[in-house]
Fold:
Amino acid sequence: MEYEFQPHYCACGCGGTGKTKWLPGHDQMLRAAIEREVGGLIELRRIIEELLQRGIDLDHKQNNGRRQLNLDSVVDRYYF
Ligand SMILES: [Zn+2]
Structure:
């Protein structure tokens, strides 16, 4: 069976094609552009949490069971 290359359009919308969903670095370019557009990562989080009507769960279990961050207090510090 002969392998047939099926190009994927880059998910950032640049029109480039490659073997994967993103051309190298374009996922980070999109993330940075979105953050810039909304005023930063904290504002992006606020918008998404408002849309979802819940907090975003950071998986702190990957911290080997160390202290978990209380996200409510972080949000309170920045917005209230
Ligand atoms: Zn792209």
Summary: Residues 8-79 form one domain. The first helix runs from residue 26 to 38. Strands lie at 8-9, 17-18.
